[in-house]
From TrEMBL:
InterPro entries: DUF4440, NTF2-like_dom_sf, Steroid_delta5-4_isomerase
Record domain DUF4440: where: 20-127
Organism: Arthrobacter mobilis
Pfam families in alphabetical order: DUF4440
Protein known as: SgcJ/EcaC family oxidoreductase
Length: 136
């Protein structure tokens, strides 16, 4: 593996780490910074959400809904990451565990995810397109 690819994979790993930490903490301000200005989010059963303003509004709604839960764990587990120039394609799983408020009942989630990342001029990577759906 050449040095450029190693650097890119390390930057993508940083993106994953920040994404997991921010998702677990409910830090939607940080999550917004991990997306390109013209990102598109394709949530299960929903319409496409595109651009900074729509994604910010979506995150506000998501944050409000998440108040019902205490997130205990959130893991992005990518089975494959492929770099093609200034884009990368990745797929894998999202797994989470949480406690439902106020009764403390446990809940778990598991999703398949596919994302397209875009390399930025500073060498960092951001989420450009993302789609996920619940595992059966």
């Amino acid at each position: 593996m050449d040095q450029d690819t190693e650097r890119d994979l390390a930057a993508i790993k940083r993106l994953h780490d920040i994404d997991m930490r921010a998702s677990k903490e409910g830090d939607f301000a940080t999550l917004r910074t991990l997306m390109t200005a013209d990102a598109v989010v394709l949530p299960p059963g929903g319409r496409p959400i595109s651009g900074r303003d729509e994604i910010a509004a979506h995150f506000v709604r998501t944050k409000a809904a998440m108040r019902r839960f205490e997130v205990l764990d959130y893991v992005l587990d990518f089975a494959e990451v492929r770099i093609a120039g200034d884009y990368a394609f990745e797929w894998g799983e999202i797994r989470g565990s949480m406690r439902v408020r106020p009764d403390g009942r446990p809940a778990h989630s598991s999703y398949k995810v596919m994302r397209i990342l875009q390399k930025q001029s500073d060498g960092e990577w951001k989420v450009h397109r993302t789609i996920w759906n619940e595992n059966a």
